[in-house]
Amino acid sequence: MILYNVTVAIDKKVESEWIKWMKIEHIPEVMATGQFDHYKFFKVMNTEDPESSSYSIQYFADNMNHIKMYMAAFAPELQQKALQKFPNQIAAFRTLLESV
Question: What is 2-98's CATH number, 3.30.70.100, 3.30.70.330, 3.30.9.10, 1.10.10.10?
Fold first, then answer.
């Protein structure tokens, strides 16, 4: 099992709009790629930035081939859509983890 984790810091001014967009549009688009089995969406609780909130979106894939396919065929466009929708309001970093 491979976990593709996306940690996002979002400006609190657009936080509720972003959460709604994630649940209704972005996450369903990622899942529609067929590369992930399931996902989890968490709010990071131990942040102290008064201007932003952080979230972790965890996408689970059976193997690295699914991750490679997602990265090559789908990720650039989906990431660009997020940056266009929330310009200068989000910062994201991505981590790959393997179940041991």
Answer: 3.30.70.100
Decide: residue 23, CB within 10 A, 0-12 exposed, 13-18 middle, 19+ buried.
exposed
pLDDT for res 2 = 98
The DSSP line for 48-85 is --TTEEEEEEEEEESSHHHHHHHHHHTHHHHHHHHHHH
Write the pLDDT tens digit of every residue in 80-96: 999 999 999 999 999 99
Cβ-based neighbours of 7, under 8 Å, separated by 6 or more: 44, 54, 55, 56, 92, 93, 94, 95
